[in-house]
Automatic annotation (TrEMBL):
Region (Disordered): 1-27
GO cellular component: cytosol
Gene3D superfamilies: Glycogen Phosphorylase B
Protein name: Trehalose-6-phosphate synthase
């Protein structure tokens, strides 16, 4: 087995996967690589600020020659946190703990002392990856986090048919609990006395309560990057499971949310499901003899950094290519993952209805729809991606001509091309069924100073941007079609004035300040 750094390991006949754990006396043993580290680690010596999330700042892939290639991780959470938590200006004593997601990640973990991939020659920032057994990870991540908790918080269930909480679900929940226990144990091991621990999102709702039981000295926060379901929908979960989720989050000293309505829904659930004492004026929840503060932190965008990236040569070349493709036509842009909550199909329906009702716009407008496949290991998501592609083809077949493509659908993820699309947008369509925040709605106005924003009222961003966006009911296809028309005919001066205000709101709480505010909240 190759050592990527070329140093720091001595060969040994150590245990392999499935073997009994090693005795405690020897230095840290790598359970699957067959190597022992040549130096003693000093757990929690400097780790005074810890960040825990399912996905980390980097991902590893295996090249054909067996070498590991490191790339920046994907996803909105990673984008928001990477520069502040894994960059040069990260807080002193910072350590990020995440799960190994791929075979490359697991290989990197097994070649690294204690899973600390930054100690194997990789420029990741202080980072520990957890090699959770793939079957446990799959059940925790796909069956519970993404197919249960995500569905509950985004109100996505087709209730005549789902959910069904049976014996299989209970076994899957045990894996979710084990997954959270692995994170809690790693955080407890790594954290210095009195350290601040920032736990992220719906994958890790049980971690704060678990940490509270083993390390009461720690200051712990939990942040939800999704919406929070109202009590009547949250109560779809079995009572004991719902109580476990709520109690897990309440193990934190501070529970953070992206918008006031999500924080209020959480407090409502705590009151109705747990009988907790809620002080809405002070935003506190008291349960089992301790009090958790509830905060609202609407994550924004670093406008300067976004413009620097959007001005690089690869983006410029995409701008030229897209302009050649769209000509002098007005451009409606949407950029999403093919996530069920993003409501892409209804957005396409609205565009189709707009074209049917406004023939004067035929040949004068192009819809750039970038819909990047997401979670294709779940059948619902594969089917949804296929539905997006089918509906897009129907629009092209119905309205396209020899010299006009009314719709350009791209399903290949390309960040530079997405930035280029922002820059040429005249209208930005963001119509999720439900969204914790939605950074697309914030990035677009920064990069396109003349774009009108058509925004779902169910996006968390609507609380900040609603005054200057054209708000729509995401289920109202005709209303969204009307909003697209209103955006296209909006006078240029009004578009630009609105965009200036939208950009100011979008950059009010950039990631560094968002991160710092939560650290401050844990210092009280």
């Amino acid at each position: 087995m190759n050592n990527p750094s070329g140093k720091g390991f001595l060969p040994c006949d150590g245990p392999h996967e499935g073997a009994d754990p090693p005795p405690p006396d020897p230095p840290h043993t790598c359970a699957t690589s067959g190597y022992i580290q040549s130096y003693e680690m000093t757990p929690h010596e400097q780790n005074t600020v810890l960040l825990a999330s399912n996905r980390g700042p980097v991902t590893f892939t295996l090249a054909e020659d067996g070498e590991l290639i490191v790339r920046r991780g994907g996803g909105g959470l990673v984008s928001g946190l990477s520069n502040v938590a894994a960059g040069a200006d990260a807080p002193p004593g910072m350590l990020w703990i995440c799960s190994a997601l791929s075979d490359g990640d697991r290989r990197a973990v097994r070649l690294s002392p204690g899973g600390r991939v930054d100690r194997s020659g990789y420029e990741t920032g202080p980072l520990r990856m957890l090699d959770i057994p793939p079957a446990t990870f799959h059940r925790a991540y796909n069956a519970i986090a993404n197919s249960t908790l995500w569905f509950v918080h985004h109100l996505l269930y087709n209730t005549p048919n789902s959910p069904r909480f049976d014996g299989l679900f209970r076994r899957e929940w045990e894996s979710y609990r084990a997954y959270n226990e692995t994170f809690a144990a790693a955080l407890a091991e790594e954290a210095a006395p009195g350290a601040r621990v920032m736990v992220q999102d719906y994958h890790l709702t049980l971690v704060p309560g678990m940490l509270r039981a083993t390390r009461p000295d720690l200051r712990v926060s939990h942040f939800s990057h999704t919406p929070w379901a109202p009590p009547d929908y949250f109560s779809l979960l079995p009572g004991d499971i719902g109580a476990e989720v709520l109690s897990g989050v309440l193990g934190a000293d501070h529970a953070g949310f992206l918008a006031e309505r999500w924080a209020s829904a959480f407090m409502d659930c705590c009151e109705s499901q747990l009988g907790a004492k809620v002080d809405r004026a002070c935003r506190t929840v008291t349960h089992d003899g301790r009090t958790t503060r509830v905060g609202v932190h609407p994550l924004g965008v670093d406008g300067h950094e976004l413009w620097v990236r959007a001005s690089e040569p690869d983006v410029e070349s995409h701008v030229a290519a897209l302009r050649a493709q769209t000509g002098d036509r007005q451009v409606i842009v949407r950029i999403d993952r093919t996530e069920l909550s993003k409501n892409i199909v209804r957005g396409l329906m609205a565009y189709r209805e707009f074209l049917a009702g406004h023939p004067e716009w035929h040949g004068r407008v192009v819809h750039l729809a970038f819909a990047y496949p997401s979670r294709h290991d779940l059948p619902e998501y594969r089917e949804y991606t296929a539905a997006v592609q089918r509906y897009a083809k129907e629009i092209e077949d119905e309205f396209g001509t020899d010299d006009w493509d009314p719709l350009v659908l791209n399903v290949d993820d390309d960040y530079a091309r997405s930035l280029a699309a922002y820059r040429i947008a005249d209208v930005l369509l963001v119509n999720p069924i439900r969204d914790g925040m939605n950074l697309v709605a914030k990035e677009g106005p920064i990069l396109s100073p003349r774009a009108a924003l058509v925004l779902s009222r169910e996006a968390g961003a609507a609380a900040e941007l609603g005054g200057d966006a054209l708000l729509v009911n995401p289920y109202d296809v005709s209303g969204t079609a009307d909003a697209l028309h209103a955006a296209l005919v909006m006078p240029e001066a009004e578009r630009m004035a609105r965009a200036v205000r939208l950009s100011a709101a979008a950059t009010a709480l950039p990631p560094r300040k968002w991160f710092a505010d939560q650290l401050t909240a844990l210092s009280g």
